[in-house]
Structure formats: C-alpha cells, structure tokens
C-alpha cells in the first residue's frame, strides 16, 4: 500500500491558486468580454493574542497600502505569483477598511471573541463593488 504525503498548507494554497488561475486563464479566450478578478482578504490584525483568547482588533484607521486593483501585485505572494502573466486581475482589498468591522462579537457562553471575517458597517462591500465595477 502506497501512502501519499500530506501537503503542507502553504504548498496546498499555492497549488490550488495556481491551478484555479491557470484554468480560468485557459478559458478566458473563449469569452473575450469576460474579466476575472481575485479578491484578497484582510490580513491578520489581532493584537495581544488570537481571535478567541482575548485579543483586540479594534483598529480605528485603515492599514497602509493595498488600495488598488492591480494586475501583478498583492500583499499575498501566492496570489501575486498565480496571476502573474495571466489575464486574471487582483482586486486587492487587503488593507482597505481594516477598521470597518466591529471589534467584539460574542455568542452566549463566550466572552471576548473577535469576529474579523464579517464586515458589519454599511457600505464596505458596496465600496468593493464600486472598485470592481470601475475595472469592468
């Protein structure tokens, strides 16, 4: 019985992103008016701990950089490498509106849990959509 090695997370992400972008780029010539964008995510921004250990993520100003739509640039080197030389563009929202979410979210039975995946202030996804529409 042959056992395959489990791929490390970084390698799995790299393989997955390159595979997806390569597939998309190979199909884009069939659809000349179609544009493809990959949206980045906000970077880890916890201070004094982790999301479930009493840390804080109550920033009041945006992080610097990462405020443009770019063809071959991103704060994520895996994504940057995957789109390089393709027609897939990066919608780099990495550092946009880091302060645009509430810093504390708690469910019953939990305290000091930070929810940095859900953007709670009105208008933030709308702004991303406006950036995307200007590129289309």
UniProtKB/TrEMBL annotation:
A GO molecular function held by the record: O-acetyltransferase activity
GO-annotated cellular components: Golgi apparatus
Superkingdom to which the source organism belongs: Eukaryota
Signal peptide residues on this chain, from the entry's feature table: none
Stretches of the chain forming a coiled coil according to its record: none
InterPro entries (alphabetical): TBL, TBL_C
Residue ranges of every copy of the Trichome birefringence-like C-terminal domain listed in the record: 4-134
Family: Belongs to the PC-esterase family. TBL subfamily.
Annotated protein name in UniProt: Trichome birefringence-like C-terminal domain-containing protein
